[in-house]
Amino acid sequence: MERERKSQGGGIANRGFASMDPERQREIARKGGATVSRNREHMAEIGRKGGEASGTSRSNRANQNGNALP
C-alpha cells in the first residue's frame, strides 16, 4: 500500500518519511531506537554531559544573582 499526499505545489509527494506507509515508518523508527540503545556506555556518557552542562548553567545563574546553592 503506497500513501500519497499533495504537496503545497499541488503535485503528489512520493518521497520522504512522511509519505511512507505508517507501518514502514514504525519499522524504520524501531531500527533506529534499537541501534541507539545497544550502546549503553555511549548513552550514559551523553546523559552525564547533559547533566554537567545543566548543573553548571544553574550554578552560574545562582552566582550571578548572589545566591548560593545549598
TrEMBL record:
<feature type="compositionally biased region" description="Polar residues">
    <location>
        <begin position="54"/>
        <end position="70"/>
    </location>
</feature>
<feature type="compositionally biased region" description="Basic and acidic residues">
    <location>
        <begin position="21"/>
        <end position="30"/>
    </location>
</feature>
<feature type="compositionally biased region" description="Basic and acidic residues">
    <location>
        <begin position="38"/>
        <end position="51"/>
    </location>
</feature>
<feature type="region of interest" description="Disordered">
    <location>
        <begin position="1"/>
        <end position="70"/>
    </location>
</feature>
<dbReference type="Pfam" id="PF10685">
    <property type="entry name" value="KGG"/>
</dbReference>
<protein>
    <recommendedName>
        <fullName>Stress-induced protein</fullName>
    </recommendedName>
</protein>
<dbReference type="InterPro" id="IPR019626">
    <property type="entry name" value="Stress-induced_KGG_rpt"/>
</dbReference>
